[in-house]
Amino acid sequence: MLVLITYDVNTQTPLGRKRLRQVAKQCVNYGQRVQNSVFECVMDAAKAREVQNKLEKIIDKETDSLRFYYLGNNYQGKVLHIGAKESFDVESPLII
Q: pTM (2 decimals)?
């Protein structure tokens, strides 16, 4: 299924900037960045829970926020892209 992960981390302190880097680093491990704080991740429900738990341990729930949008398995018709930075299909074969 496609899971859209978005986050907003307060970067007014050095600890906040560190959390931002940690959240981004974790998200890169599971999907592709489509905007600064938005990642598209293709994963099953168990992996989504695992990622959610990892990210919850990083953020400060008083100042930061996470959002998970579960778009399901038939997500191709639910995503419309307009403009620069066209994304690639993460489920298609990779040709090198």
A: 0.80
